[in-house]
Write a structure and sequence with these properties.
Blueprint lengths: L2 E6 L18 H4 L2 H4 L2 H6 L1 H17 L4 H8 L5 E6 L5 H5 L4 E3 L2 E8 L6 E3 L19 E5 L9 H9 L3 E5 L20 E5 L12 E5 L3 H12 L1
Parallel strand pairs: 1-2, 1-7, 2-3, 7-8, 8-9
Antiparallel strand pairs: 4-5, 4-6
Helix pairs in contact: 5-8
The chain binds 2'-O-acetyl adenosine-5-diphosphoribose.
The site of 2'-O-acetyl adenosine-5-diphosphoribose has 25 residues, from loops.
Length: about 230
Amino acid sequence: MKKIVVLTGAGMSAESGLKTFRESDGLWEEYNIEEVCTPEALRKKPALVLEFYNKRREQLLQASPNQGHLDLVKLEKNYDVQIITQNVDNLHEQAGSTKVLHLHGELMKARSTGDESLIYDLDKDNYTIKIGDRCEKGYQLRPHIVFFGEAVPMIEKAADICSTADILVIIGTSMNVYPAAGLLGFAPAGIPIYFIDPHPNISEKDDLDLHIIADKAGSGVAKMIDELI
Ligand code: OAD
């Protein structure tokens, strides 16, 4: 089976009702990254950071996978599909995708601030993290999210996966955030690259076999599958 590696970003979940980050009505228009998504913010204003992510979880609990997520699952009939997502939601898993690697962490998990190996599942009945919520070793819990300025532990694994791709698909990302955006550089030379995004931020280079589908994920994934199969 050929291997399709799918790199997804916030646009993948936009039609599920979750806001993207950098569009005009995006999350970073409403919030300052430095105030909610950095280690300094967690140190200086922990309640604000925890509340920001509690709200994100509340929104995720109202959301469901969209047609784009569901169409990626269908692709597993014909291909070995490995999803690498920058998204912290679990909509790929909810849709039924079997191989999902989260680069920027997972919203529905909490982690100890004193021992990063202690990670706990959150669920719909217990989805908030508050000041005073502690791990079994007594350290405060934090969101299991990679903040700006923190290392991206999964990046090497993601680069290895990209280097074994037969086809690369990029969906709904502005390709602005590194190291995720650099994963394109690990794909074997000459493989087909599909880019699905209403405003694709990628330049046509002569050496890329680039197929741009300037459409939303909800309809664009089906168009790509029509081209592939
Ligand atoms: P951005 O907000 O930077 O980009 C969203 C992309 O989705 C844009 O290119 C839009 O054109 C596209 N888009 C919008 N609606 C779409 C739809 N219905 N279907 C397909 N595409 C659509 O989001 P990311 O590139 O994911 O990190 O941002 C990368 C990282 O920056 C995020 O993981 C997050 C953020 O700060 C952390 O929070 C750690």
